[in-house]
């Protein structure tokens, strides 16, 4: 099988996984008002399945295990990107002391430098994808951002 055929096959398999996950999430949404906000935030695990992986051809993009675009990096430092992804995937400890990292909406910032931003809004809200209401999509994306911030910042004692 040629490289092109392998890539096409991989993309087809990822599309099937996305469709299955989308149906599972849609089943949850039948009675959305019955779900507490914290539960909805935890649904990021269905949308942005770990482990994340960096695109082989364009290392600025990271995708979830089920093919959802997860992050776009604003650096060319492949070693740093690998450390970041390994940290999010739980394969290494935090990247820095607590307080070094912050997020502004979907932007993840170290000091005064934009490192990356969270993607997947189109997958969450698009009519050809999950078609979630924006309020629900925002909570899911917020849950994913909170998880990333916990992983890269490391444990903290609540006094910071």
Task: Report what the structure shows.
The chain is of the alpha+beta class and 160 residues long. Helices cover 45% and strands 15% of the residues. It has 6 helices and 6 strands. The chain is globular. The C terminus is likely disordered.
Structural class: alpha+beta
Distance between the termini: 54 Å
- The counted number of beta strands is 6
Strand content: 15-25%
Query: What characterizes the major β-sheet?
Result: 6 strands, antiparallel
Identify low-pLDDT runs: 156-160
Radius of gyration: 16 Å
Q: What is the average of the pLDDT values?
A: 85
Number of helices: 6
Give the overall silhouette. Answer: globular
Secondary-structure element series: HHHEEEHEEEHH
Secondary structure: helix percent: 40-55%
Concise description?
With 160 residues, the chain is of the alpha+beta class.
Q: What is this structure's SSE topology?
A:
Blueprint (H helix, E strand, L loop, with lengths): L2 H26 L8 H6 L1 H4 L5 E2 L6 E3 L5 E5 L4 H11 L12 E4 L2 E4 L2 E6 L2 H5 L8 H20 L7
Antiparallel strand pairs: 1-2, 2-3, 3-6, 4-5, 5-6
Spell out the key features of this protein.
single chain, 160 residues, alpha+beta, six-stranded antiparallel sheet, 15% strand
